[in-house]
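Translate sequence into structure tokens.
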Amino acid sequence: MTEDVNSSTTRVTILIVSDVHLKQDYLEHVKKYLTKQNLLGSIDVAICAGDFANLKGEEYTNDNVLKHTEGVIDSIMAELETISPHAFYIPGNVSIFCFLFSIT
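Result follows.
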């Protein structure tokens, strides 16, 4: 967070990304863009707004596919946390089923 020197307000920089769809290099592209814009290191909160996964049909009930998917999601979240220690994930319409089936 940064304080605006001309007022009493505090500025919070939020990064929102979505539709990663298990592409592990997705956030590398985001980090390159942030670096180019001189923003890397100044993100207070990073949010992935849905759809980590892109599973179809019976893939949701295949334990091997789900374990692989969970591993990729963990890697992507770890990468998101390198952009901001305050990283959050909101499951999307595709991802929610992945989490539901992996819990049962």
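Note: The longest strand covers residues 14-17.
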